[in-house]
Each structure stands twice: as structure tokens, then as C-alpha cells.
Amino acid sequence: MHDKTLTELAAGLQAGEFSSRELCQAALERIEHLDGELNSFITVIAEQALANADAADRARDAGNAGPLAGLPLALKDIFCTQGVRTSCGSKMLDDFASPYDATVVEKLRQAGAVNIGKTNMDEFAMGSSNENSFYGPVKNPWDLSAVPGGSSGGSAAAVAAGLVPAALGTDTGGSIRQPAAFCGITGLKPTYGRVSRYGMVAYASSLDQGGPLARTAADCALLLETIAGHDVRDSTSVARVVPDYTAELETSLSGLKIGLPKEYFGDGLDPEVETAVREAIKVYESLGAKVCEVSLPHTHLAIPAYYVIAPAEASSNLSRYDGVRFGHRCDDPTDLEDLYKRTRAEGFGEEVKRRILIGTHTLSEGFFDAYYLKAQQVRRLIRQDFLDAFDEVDVLMGPTAPTPAFDLGAQKDPVSMYLQDIYTIAVNLAGIPGISVPAGFAGNRPVGLQVLAPHFAEAQLLGVAHQFQQATDWHLKRPAFGKEMA
Amino acid sequence: MAIEHADVLRAAHLARVGLSEDEATGYVDDLSRILKMVDQLQAVDTQDITPLAHPLDATQRLRPDEVTEHSQRERFQACAPAVTDGLYLVPRVVE
After folding, report:
1. E strand or H helix at A77, and its extent?
2. How many angstroms away from the CA of B25 is the closest CA of chain A?
3. Which of A170, A288, A395, B78 has a CA that sits 20 to 30 A from residue A466's CA?
4. Residue B87: what pLDDT?
5. pTM
6. Is A230 within 8 Å of chain B by CB?
7. A434-442 and A210-214: which strand pairing?
8. What are chain B's domains?
9. What radius of gyration do chain B's Cα atoms show?
10. How far apart are the first and last CA of chain B?
11. Is A196 noted as a catalytic residue in this protein?
12. In the 8-state DSSP scheme, what is residue A420?
């Protein structure tokens, strides 16, 4: 069962080939046997999952099962789950059990999905390799010496290893798409505001967006139509009708105009990654699409702008971790300032402190205009680049990441690590949707093709990705890791 | 703009993150290189460009000033490090 897609498993449940209990039990057994090496889960909730699987089986027998009834999923440990630890990969929240559910968690439960557990992640979603977790690094199932990508690396590795058929992640600068590319699966970052952020632990509020990681675009469509939609509890979520994404997957590619940003094929791009991406684009041409070169002239400013805006928002968002209302508290504080300072010094890891310090510095008196205001102005230029490009073409394509997954411990310099997100980060600044689909290999490590579309054009994006997966078999490849388990 | 040891300590104080002198020294080099990378922004002419705070250019919505939730004090204090009689406990501020 672990090789099947979410859509195939839903059909199997519907046909009575297996029960939800059997399906969830199989997932739990794989986690128990394989995750010791992978470290993709922080928390597994076996008893609760099996009880919910039984409830889904009963609902199906009674004829009132939801669209995801009985399907096991995992959630990045950034989504609040009532009564279950929500650590966000941090010592700060190691013993925090949320008193409420995130909106997406509620929506998944109402659709009948079974939450198996919470996946590992870079602390407070800050990272591109999943090496910044308080719970240790996650390994890439394609090559255990490689990183899975970050910050949703636990979700990506768990899906790639067949521990669960799909998972939710979040993407602030590429954190769904980059780990999806590194792990050879499909990952969708929706338009900013398409999915509620209520109950999603905040990193950078104007950039964060939750979305699905799964084997196929069809599975991502199924999940997106469940979790998307307006939420009165999130004032940044958008009140627009949620399309039937699954019904729109079969759109023809004939006449589709694809733009290749010339800035995405320059220096620093691994030759094997470039070859795989260009081969994928040839597939689109063979399916009737037209390809042309476009320019996104402010691409080189995306990382500098991001590393002002995101840390600035993070320094504000993370001020709530003060040891008073929830989370870690230092022992025997002498006064209130000592409580704050020692609690935060003990609770946060190195990368989180680095970003808080940068964010606080750039927002402080004398620096605000030169850094924060400037970055927000550049952000408008970056978004305008995309709007101009979409006047010419329907979608943009390029590599998701400049290299395949790198070795654990290989990137020691923070600035070099930040450059890993060079093709994904501008998308968050502009708020447009993007998807990464498996498109080949560089050595034994997967390569992702990134497809970008205008705001709220997820249906088109998913259709374009789905048509590629109908014509190729990269999404069907499975790592050798865990193959010995049925 | 280079960052110095005193700037790191100032930021740490503003953010209420306790750092030793040695730890602050360790961050000076990292933060300097990040700010050097960020300084590329200064080369761009952004005169007359309106800052973009929200990717959809949306403004904050207002909702009716109505009570929509009941008190959940016990529930939300259940995960607090220290409470008594429905109040969060912190060190005494005024002796």
C-alpha cells in the first residue's frame, strides 16, 4: 500500500480492498521500522490515529464518509493540533500541547483524513536543509547522507519514503517546493491567502503559506480543495470561491505559453539539474506548448529583500515566546528581564537567534528606512516582474533549486545556505503560486521542475503539472530505502 | 553597513535574547556577511516606489466589534509554565 498515491488509496478504500484501520496500521508499522533512521517524525499519535481510522470505517459503512475518509496524512509540526504536541522543531515548544486546532487541521478532520503524526522541520521553519531542528536532522530517503531540504523536510521525506501518502507543509521562501524537489515528490505552494494561516505557527506573516506535499499533482489538487478557502479567523485569507481543482486537471496543454526566465538558467545552476529541467520542458513542447524566454530582472534582489523582510517579521512574531504564557521557561528567574532573556536564550537555536538579531537590527532606530522600507519597495519591483511576465505567458518554468540535495553538514555558511532558495524565494515575495514536480535525477538524487502561475491560478498550475505526470514517470520512481518492507 | 559587537549586543537586548560576550562575538561575522549581501538593495533606485507590505496589496479588514468567543481562561492556561488562581505567575517586579 505504501507505493500508492492518495487518489489510488481513496479508490481502494471505496472499493473495500482494505479498511482505513489496515491502511493506518500499515503506515504506523512503516514509521516504527523505518523512521528511526529517517527521523522524519517528531510525534506519532498511533492510538488516536487508529481510533479515527475506525471512525472513518464506520462512516464509510454508514454511507456518509468525507472525501478524504480514512486516508492517513501527516502534518508539519507547525500546525496546531489540539491536545497534541506542536513543537515547531524548537526546544521552546518541546512540551507545548496546543489548546486548539489550526483551521486546516479542522478541515482535514471534517473531510475524514486521519492524522498519523507531526513531522520534523527546521526550527520555526527557518532553514533550507532541515538541519536546524531541535529534534535532529532529517535524512533524505534517496540517499541517507543527503539532506531532505527544508524547512518541511520531515513531511517531504515521510512521503518520499512511503510512510504516509501525503503531508502538509508550509512555504515561506521555498519550504514546500525545495524539499519536494530534493525528495522526488510533488509540492504546491498556493497563492498567499488561499489557505488559512490560523493555527499555523507564524514565522514571516506576509510570506507564510501552507500547502500539500504528495506523490502527484492530482493528490495535491485533492488536498488543496479540502484545505483552501476563506477563514474569518485569518484576516489575510482571501474570500474567493475554491475551484474544483480535481475536475480541472485534464486541461489540454495545446497552445499553452511557457516562459523560461533567463535569470533561472545562469551561473550557479548545476549542469545535471539544467539538463533534466530542459528535457522536461521539451516534454511540454511535445504536448503542444509554446516556449519562449522571458526576463525577471530583479531576481538577484529577491534573497537580499527576503533576508530583511522575513527576519523583521520573525523578530516581531517570535517576541511572544517569553516564558510567561506557554512554552519553555528558564529556572529560577531573578526578575522579569532575566526571565525573558534566559528563557529565549535557552529556548531558541542558533539560526533562530541569528534571524531575530538581524530582524531586530534592521527594524531598529536609524536602520528602518535603509533596510526594511527599501526591501518592501524592492518587493514591489519583484512582484511587478512577475505581473509583466504573465502578460506575455501563461506559466513560468525553471529549476526548483540550483542543485540536487546536498550532503548533510555540507553547507556551513549561512549566506551560502540562503542562496539555495534563489529560484523559490521571489515567489513568496510576490505571493504567486508555485509547484515543484519530479523531473529527473542528478546522480542518484532527484531534480524538481518548478512551475509558476499568476495569483489564484492553482487550477492551471495543477493541470500543467498533472499533464506532465501523465506523459512521464518521474513521479513513479521510488527510493530503495524501505523497499524491503511490503 | 557593517555591524559591530556593540550592535549585536544592542539588538540582543532589544529582542530580549540573552547573549554572552563570546556568543555576541560569534554572531558579528555572520551578521556582517548577511548585511553585506543585503546591501545590494542600496544600488536600486526606489524613489517613488510604494512599499509592498502585503503580496496582494490588500488592506486589513475590519470586523464588527462583537464578542464572538467565550472565556477559555482555564483551557489556555493549562499549557502555561506557572499559574495560580487564574493568573500567570512571573517574578515580582516591584519589591
Report:
1. none
2. 12
3. A170
4. 95
5. 0.97
6. no
7. unpaired
8. 1-42 (1.10.20.60)
9. 22
10. 43
11. no
12. G
